[in-house]
Amino acid sequence: MKVIASPDKNVAPGIQTIASLLAAGCLFIVEDAVALLCEVTSYVCDTKASAKGKDEPVKQNDHSLDALRYAV
After folding, report:
1. Percent of the chain with pLDDT over 90
2. What does the alpha-carbon distance between residue 25 and residue 70 come to, in Å, rounded to a whole number?
3. The dihedral of CA 27, 64, 34, 48: what is its sign?
4. Dist. CA 46–CA 52, nearest whole Å
5. Integer angstrom CA distances of residue 57 from 15, 27, 35, 47
6. CA neighbor of 44 nearest in space, from 28, 29, 27, 56
7. Cβ(27)–Cβ(21) below 8 Å
8. Per its UniProt record, what PROSITE patterns does this chain match (predicted)?
9. What confidence category does residue 17 fall into, taking pLDDT thresholds of 50, 70 and 90?
10. Cα separation of 52 and 21, whole Å?
11. Are 57 and 46 a contacting pair, CB within 8 Å?
C-alpha cells in the first residue's frame, strides 16, 4: 500500500475557525444539540501540551465538537 500523504492532525486551525465564526455571529448551535452544547462547556486544553507550548484539547467526550469542526 502506498501512502500519498500523512494527515494533518493539527486541530488548532479548526478550533480557531469555529471560535471566530461563533464570535462573529455567523455560526449558531441550536438548543436541541444537547451533546454538542455539553461538550462545548467542558472543552479544555491539555495542560501537559500547554506546558510544552502546544495548544491541544483533551481528547475526551469531544465527538460532537470534532464533527462540527469537520463540517465547517
Report:
1. 35
2. 19
3. negative
4. 10
5. 9, 21, 17, 9
6. 56
7. yes
8. PROKAR_LIPOPROTEIN (PS51257)
9. very high
10. 28
11. yes
CA 47 – CA 55 distance, rounded (Å): 9
CA–CA distance, 67 with 72 (Å, rounded to integer): 9
Long-range pairs for 47-54: beta carbons < 8 A, 24 or more residues apart: none
Residue 4 has pLDDT above 80, yes or no: no
> Domain residue spans in the chain?
29-71
Whole-model pTM? Answer: 0.72
When the pLDDT of each residue in the chain is averaged and rounded to a whole number, the result is: 86
